[in-house]
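Exam revision sheet. Question 4 asks you to relate a sequence to its structure. Input first:
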Amino acid sequence: MLEEALMKNHLMGMFIGLAVGDALGRPIEGNDPRQVQGMEDGGPFSLSLPAGYWTDDTSMALCLSDSLLEQGRYDSYDVMQRYSRWAAQGYRSSTGVCFDIGGQVRRALADFETAPEVGETEPRTERAGNGCIMRLAPVVIAALAVGGDVGWLSRMSGRETHYSELAEHATEIFGEMLERAATAGAQGGRKESIYPSAGTNPELARRLHAAADKSAEELTPSGFVVDTLEAALWAFMTAEDFAAGALKAVNLGGDADTIGAVYGQLAGAYYGLTEIPAEWRGDLHDYEELLRVAEALASLGSLSAPRTRFAEDNPR
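Answer key, structure tokens:
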């Protein structure tokens, strides 16, 4: 029972860490030269956002969570319909309207409206933005809670909006890292155990293994999925606790909210919910609802077979 409660702390930390990192990075997303020291007001959007408000990263994670919890399985169509509701109606937005939606996500939602099914001959895109990994925690938490296939569900989740081989590989690798981080954290394992295996993309795995050896000046805090993974992993491996790493991650600047969200998932999984600063958690917009969703995901007992809109998928 104690072991189950301990693992739940790390699974919930993965989800709340996402939202915390997103909200920390939001005020300096873009080219803002400031360095944040905690939850702050501001941001690049025309909306006036108070401290603790989160962006598209958390909104999409909530859409994905709602689908998993209400459908009792991963349902491609339902997930995309919820993303579309967020984009069109502000469903699960912290402000009631959609903002900060990425270009690759916007295009994927437009394609879904006209042609929901994706055939085996559908060409892959060369674009590989970080939107595929910024929202990943719900899928990994659900899979770990029920003993499911983290890698396969991660890939399926990523390709919904990022139909690119590199994005798919990156999503699978990040799912593996989140699984290893939660397990290592719960068992008192070393950080180094979270490094990914070569998997389907040995070159990407090698680059991530070398991330901790870089200086901040050698990192590129862009929206490219590999840059984001590298920045988040660097912050995680070179800091002593959740808070220090979170500030290192978001203060790289650039796509600060998503780098923060990706770092937050990884560090939250490793350190656990209770090691995320209570002040930051308490500052989060709608924290009690975020906590409810995190606990519901971590408490799942089963998932039915997935429903996919991709012809190439063979549900297990």
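Marking note for examiners. The chain has one domain: 2-30+54-117+127-298.
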